[in-house]
Amino acid sequence: MIPYARQSIDDADAAAVMEALRSDFLTQGELVPAFERELAQYAGAQHAVAVCNATSALHLAVRALGLGPGGLLWTSPNSFVASANCGRYCDAEVDFVDIDPRTYNLDPELLAAKLEEAGKRGRLPDIVVAVDFAGQPCDLDALSDLRTRYGFKLVEDASHAVGAAWNGRATGSGDADVTIFSFHPVKIITTAEGGMALTNDAAVASRMRLLRSHGITRERPEMRADAPEPWYYEQVDLGYNYRLTELQAALGRAQLRRIDEFLQRRRAIADRYDRELAGLPLVLPWQDPRAASSYHLYPIQVREDAPLSRRELFDALGASGIRANVHYIPIHTQPYYRDLGFGPSDFPRAEAYYARALSLPMYAALDDLGQSRVIAAIREALR
Ligand SMILES: *Cc1c(COP(=O)(O)O)cnc(C)c1O
After folding, report:
1. Beta carbon of 55 within 6 Å of any ligand 1 atom
2. In this predicted model, what pLDDT tens digit does every residue of 285-338 receive, in sequence order?
């Protein structure tokens, strides 16, 4: 069976985890801070906060940026539900901005128009969560301009985009107020479960650190007591336990050593799909020349003039042992969001894209033979 995505674990990865397992600390040791330093350096960020998954990274980011009850968060409907749910965790209102039909990312022109409307009505968003869909960064120049003009905070959900770049600037290097990475096994590098929040704002970073661990601190300036005993700590806010373990950090550091090899392989796979699927009744993923994608996904659309539907192509691939997938069911069409008042046809571009979308197998461990099977099965089905 060829899945749409999977991890790549080698002997060095396994050895790193075993070493951590036999060390003095299984959690709250030195490996998590080392992973944070190395990833911050890789992405060109000043601060990195490792957490147990990207969903909690999003939650910490929006809380640290001040989102709370009565607040407003906007994001893309073409994403995993976590991009929107982080607003709901804070009892804020959530709304969406439809996508650019070429990149499938939140469309900066629609965002500009919606901001202008919202400004007139006096209800601007506090946070915009921009999602780097499939690993292709959003138009961070346009988003930064709008942020300056309208004063929202920008969170970049780069769960797909570790190792990507926009206009030569590495993802996470500081275009957004906070950038989020995911280390779920289907993503670029993995820690099983895991995530990271990157920022160049020291105050936001220390607030995320505080909230990661129950809102508890042992740092003198953060505490009220002025002559604390050595064992003393204070809970100064209501936080969570969102910590990453030492075993996971060990795996993350080992994976980070292989990231360039992973990205190179993903780009080679994308190039070959681009070449060998050209001319078929499919829409292949368009790349903005300013973007360097990390190719988490290779999303195609089955065109209307194709001899079979998306569902039929999905089933034909399945019959050949190839498990494609679909990203994403538009968030606003989920029952939970319908109950909040959203409905079908609210964001027609995301819905039209979803109706024809299919994510082909894309992962560093997919070899040439495996990719040949995928390409042959698609050609055969479309004959
Ligand atoms: C995977 C993913 C998440 C959530 O990541 P977890 O680490 O599984 O919590 C959030 N947003 C997007 C766009 C994702 O693809």
Report:
1. yes
2. 999 999 999 999 999 999 999 999 999 999 999 999 999 999 999 999 999 999
Atom of ligand 1 minimally distant from the CA of 131: 13
Q: 211 CB less than 6 Å from ligand 1?
A: no
Tokens at 316, concatenated: 């034909």
pTM: 0.98
- Asked if residue 294 has its Cβ within 6 Å of ligand 1, the reply is no
79 lines ligand 1 (CB under 6 A): yes
Cis peptide before 328 (omega within 30 of 0): yes
Beta-carbon neighbour count of residue 287 at 10 Å? 16
Q: 368-382 vs 310-319: helix axis angle to the nearest 10? A: 130
CB 91 within 8 A of CB 116: no
Distance CA 72, CA 95 (A): 8
What burial class does residue 1 get, using C-beta atoms within 10 Å of its C-beta: 0-12 exposed, 13-18 middle, 19+ buried? exposed
Strand partners, 180: 157, 197
